[in-house]
Each structure stands twice: as C-alpha cells, then as structure tokens.
C-alpha cells in the first residue's frame, strides 16, 4: 500500500529503530530553513502555502515509508494515521539532518497522507469547490477548469508510474481494472465524481486521468435561473414538464451541463414514484426516496461478463418502474429507451450529444438504426415523434457560462417529417461583443402542445401563465 516493503524488523509503534531515543531531541523540534534556499515547486491550495523543495520531499518520503509498519496502518483512517506520520517526518528530518520549517513539515505530512489515503498531488484540487474538472496529462501537466476556463496548475506527479498507481487505485475502488491489457476505463470516486482513465501505449505522453467533479451544491432550476443559465419562465415550464411526466431529452456538447440539468429536472419527480436510473458511471443524485440505481459493467480479462446500458434498460422494464432515467444515450439502447417511453413509462429522461434539437433527432434515428437496421426510417421517426415530448438544448458558451439555448417541443408528424416548435430560444446579441456573452431569452408566441396534458394534471393555467411573453 505504501510503495516500499519494510527492510527490517519494525517496533510495534511503527517507527524506525534508528529514530533518536527519547530525551535526545524533542519530537517536534525543527530548524528554520535558511532564507537563501529557493523552493522548487508549489502545491496547489489557497496560495499561501510554503513551497517544498522536491529533493527534500523525496528524501523524507523514502525515509517515512521505509520506517513505517504497513500492518499497523491497515484499517486506520487518515486522521488516525496523521500523528504517526508527523512523528516519522520529524524523526527522518533529524536523522538525515534536514532543515525544514513548521509549514514545510505540515505540507509534507499532508502530501504523504494524500499518497496513502487520497489521490496524491491532485487531492487538494478535488477539495476546491471552484474547480469542476481535473485533467491530468501525464506526470507533469495537470489542468483544471474553473468558472468555465481551463488553467494549468503547478501540481505535478513524481513520474508516470505515480499517475498509473493513482489511476489503478481509482479503478479498484469501484471493482474495475486498468492496465496494459485493459488501458481504458470509466470509473467514479467515492463522492460520485466521474473519472476516465487512458494508459500508455494508448496515451502517448503518459497516463491520462480526466475527472468531472461531483457537485456538492444542490443545483435546482431556481438556482440555475438566478445564475443566468436559463430564464425564470424557462424554469417554470421545465418544472411543469417534469411534473406532467413529459419524456424529456437534454441535448448538448461535452461539458455543457447536461447531467446537471437532468438532476435539476429530476427534483420534480413525485416521491410516490419508482424511478430506475441507468448509467455507465453513477453520478445522478436523485432526492426521491424510491430510486433504484443501476450501473454498467465492463468485460473481464477473458472478455466475458459485460453488462451494457441496453441490457440494463431491458431489465429495468421488468422492475415495475414509473420512470426510467438513462444517464446518456449513445448507442443501440436508444431503441429500448423509445420503446419504454412509448409503453407507459411517461416522465422518462435521458441526455444525448448533439448541437441542436434537430441534430438530436437525427442522432436518435441513427442510433435506433444501429440496433435495428431493418426498421424503415418512417417507422423510426413515428416512434420518436410519439415518444419524445421535449428536447432541451444546453450549451457551454465562449465565456464559460452554460446556457439553455432552446426548449423545443415535438408536436407530431407531417408526411415523413417530424414537426417541432420552439417554446424558448436564447438570442445572442452580436452588436455587444465582449468577453461576456450577452443576449436575451425569448418566449415563443405559441401554445404548447402539451397544454392538454397539463390540464389533466390541473396545471394548464400555470403553463399558459409561464408562457406569457
């Protein structure tokens, strides 16, 4: 667990026999670092941390792991191990005659505990709530996304083996494996953050780890309206759509906020409904009491045992669900999702990668044809028109802000074409070009086709009020 085996017998305390005996030196005695010594690198954090020389850290780390009794650490938490690690750091510094300050000692202890119990040097980035993505490109490059913009950090791994070790620890935490024979994996952290790992030889310049952080804030449609992600009228209509059990597809590009919006829509699912969620890596955070969460499983080393999203969608139909929420539709499971939406599972939701609602419809057609190539296109379009009620388009704009750019309703077929109408659109103001994207959310001068359905739920008046310009 700790990277090195013990070279000789270790006392029960877990400390090295060569540590100074009691009485020779205070356990926490440190010597101030000379002012002339320049630090080598920074550890990301609040910006006020003392910089630790990399050679100093390597020496102390090697000494601590050589002196540590691995069996004494098994089953212990980070806080339980912290006093022993602090003592070992001081002992190694004294034995090697290393000059370290109090702040350096605190930082070294934190880095060692991150290596033991966390994800090494990127652990502080995961604790930073302003960061939404952590992107590791080999040992020497760690990028983060903060407020929609990418930034290069000072964070570094020791070498590529260190990155691979962290990646394998992540995969093992959810019962998956990543190595040369299986160099790609989707996983999640204990807090729900989504992780993708690609190892060499596929990743040419070192192992790649991409982490989409799990938001600890409870994002609602009301909060999104306050932030300017959508208008208050949009939020009201989407709330009514979810309450009226409309089948909704959230469409957008990578990192546009599809899952966040899907979570916000799910808040209006009734507490008396049974909801089944299906994902590759579980990250949906439903607040209802009756939720069954299913997760796919990759194939094993023999190429067997894989459980796909399509398998789970088919099985979910036998679980008496009121609603099925598919984290992302990307393949043949689209056919089964449409079948579910058409057979009494109203209020089902999913996301799809597409640039416009019309592109989303075309992608659905393509994915259904992947599953059933013998189905005529007209039949597929009729299924889509009868199954899907709303497509909500969301986009990450050049200023980093995620905005709902269109709420489009599918109203039926005319000949062999699916007819749509825009309930809301975001109009970009081209005359006011600046760092910040400016525009207005416009309400379409149309009567929603689902107004009759809203009347069934006693919400028609609220819907028409929300649609007023």
Automatic annotation (TrEMBL):
Domain of life, source organism: Bacteria
Renumbered residue ranges of the record's region Disordered: 1-29
GO MF annotation: an example: ATP hydrolysis activity
SUPFAM superfamilies linked: P-loop containing nucleoside triphosphate hydrolases
Matches recorded under InterPro entries: P-loop_NTPase (IPR027417), T2SS/T4SS_dom (IPR001482), T4SS_GSP_E_ATPase (IPR050921)
Bacterial type II secretion system protein E domain mapped to chain residues: 118-393
Family to which the UniProt record says this protein belongs: Belongs to the GSP E family.
Protein name: Fimbriae assembly-like protein
Organism: Caballeronia arvi
